[in-house]
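tokens incoming
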């Protein structure tokens, strides 16, 4: 059974403006440790790819916070949610910190998809219960 749906549309130009103002601190605030490594690798190769990666992760975390009904309040934090790619390339939600036991106690599973095009990044999250 679906317990929550969240979506977020992010203007990549807004993410770029924030990076220009705050520098790498912004990426460090939004991204978890594994995401930060990918972001830095992509940025080093092609800065636009790093920017798009950051924007899709930002959108996914916003969408996830809506799907679980908390918004950005404890135990939901930017760094407690990571969107990592499976070997197949499919994005997957990975939780940590206090959010992991909070989420697991409810018997939920999250599904995420992300995309970007020119100036926008979009994420869609569905949270379902595993119990019938």
């Amino acid at each position: 059974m679906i317990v929550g749906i969240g979506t977020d549309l992010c203007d990549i130009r807004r993410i770029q403006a924030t990076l220009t103002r705050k520098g790498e601190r912004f990426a460090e605030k939004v991204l978890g440790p594994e995401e930060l490594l990918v972001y830095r690798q992509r940025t080093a190769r092609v800065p636009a790819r790093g920017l798009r990666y950051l924007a899709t992760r930002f959108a996914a975390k916003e969408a996830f916070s809506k799907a679980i009904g908390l918004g950005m309040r404890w135990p939901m934090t930017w760094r407690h949610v990571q969107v990592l790619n499976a070997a197949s390339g499919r994005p997957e939600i990975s939780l940590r910190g206090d959010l992991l036991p909070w989420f697991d106690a409810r018997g939920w599973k999250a599904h995420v998809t992300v995309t970007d095009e020119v100036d926008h990044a979009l994420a869609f999250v569905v949270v379902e219960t595993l119990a019938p």
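note: The helical segments are 12-22, 24-30, 33-45, 47-67, 99-105.
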